[in-house]
Structures are given as structure tokens and as C-alpha cells.
Amino acid sequence: NAGVTQTPKFQVLKTGQSMTLQCAQDMNHNSMYWYRQDPGMGLRLIYYSASEGTTDKGEVPNGYNVSRLNKREFSLRLESAAPSQTSVYFCASSRQQGAEGYTFGSGTRLTVV
Amino acid sequence: GEDVEQSLFLSVREGDSSVINCTYTDSSSTYLYWYKQEPGAGLQLLTYIFSNMDMKQDQRLTVLLNKKDKHLSLRIADTQTGDSAIYFCAESYSGYSTLTFGKGTMLLVSP
After folding, report:
1. Residue spans of beta strands (DSSP E) within A39-73
2. pLDDT digits (tens, 9 = 90+) for B21-48
3. Would you call B48 an interface residue with chain A, using a CB distance cutoff of 8 Å?
């Protein structure tokens, strides 16, 4: 059972380049999330999708866009990468927001130079 | 707004008990969680507790909740070197809200 799969695992971008981080879950979960993890800052919510067809901003949405492609897939796009977006990005999913916790992917380590 | 606070670091010897503490500000928090993150990996849900419970035990893990003081703790009995990781406390105020995470407590277990 794969759970939550994120691709790629590592990426280096130049400032101004764009890229899409992919996330897919095979647990038939309704809700999906994107977090970033920075040293000393914990996890901060970027965007989430409570259900297929809806997306909402989290704590730090600036510089990002998301697409809930279908129930399984939730992508995160950086249109013009900046060094401040250097981080580890985690996708997560849950059957229902809040209850029973989230299942996390293994992360994408992104460096913007 | 919601805020979750944790101490940043805890060091214990193998075989001892570890207690990781967390405080939260939202008195209406309904669900409280503990996650474990090993180096280079994602977060793994260890356990969670509903706000109508005071304690939950699961093998070596004991979660205690003091709602009056908004304090949550995770006790790991007979701590092993494999328990070395970052532990995150998280809360949500309903089954339909997103989770708010603390900054994590790094647990270092020495032989």
C-alpha cells in the first residue's frame, strides 16, 4: 500500500524557474494538504483541499498555486521560484479534515539558487 | 489564534522514560495528535486523543491531557535509540478543520 507518493524527491531550481510538485494518494481520502518545513519554523500550511473540486489558502500561500486534479492527486506549482522557497515540502491526506490525523508523503527537498 | 508550543530538545539515556510536553492555546481543540519524524522522512502519526479523554495508552506510549492547563504530554517508556527523532504535537478544533503543528521536539537517545 503506497499511501501518499510525492515526486520528485529532490529538485534544484534557478531563481525565476517554475516547477510543479506532484502528490498522489491511494487511500480514497477526501482531503489533501501541502506543507512546507523549515528549520525552527515547524510545518506551515500552504494550501489545502477539503474535498475534490475545492482548494483553500493556508498560512503561507504567497508564491504558490495548487490544483486538485481529481480525488487522488493534488499538485503544488511554483510559477517563479525564489530562494525563500527553499524548503522541504510535504503533501498529506486525510479521510476527513482534522479527525484521525493525516498521512504524510516522504517529502520533496527543493533548493532555489 | 491557534498556537502550539513545544520545547525544542530532549536528551535521555536508553532505557529511561522520555516525556515530551506540549501546550496549546485553543481551548476548543477537539483532537490532539503526536507525530514522529525520522531523519529524511515524512511525519508518521503515533497516536491521537480526543478532548473528552484524559489519558490514552498504546504499548510504550502514554498520552496525558490536562484540558484545564491546555497541556498535552507524550511519555515513551523504556526509550530506545530507535526512538531518536523529532516529535510534533498538533491540534485541530474540530473534525473539519486543518491541523496546527508545534515546531517539534528533537529527542536524542544515547546508549
Report:
1. 42-49, 56-57, 64-68
2. 999 887 777 789 999 999 889 999 999 9
3. yes
